[in-house]
Amino acid sequence: CADAADGTDGADDVAYSRWLFDGYAESFDDELRRLGYTMPQLLADAVVDAAGAAAARPRFARAADLGAGTGLAARALRAGADVDEFVGVDVSRAVLARCLPPPEPSLSPVI
Question: Strand order in 82-89's β-sheet?
Answer without folding.
Answer: 59-66, 82-89, 107-110
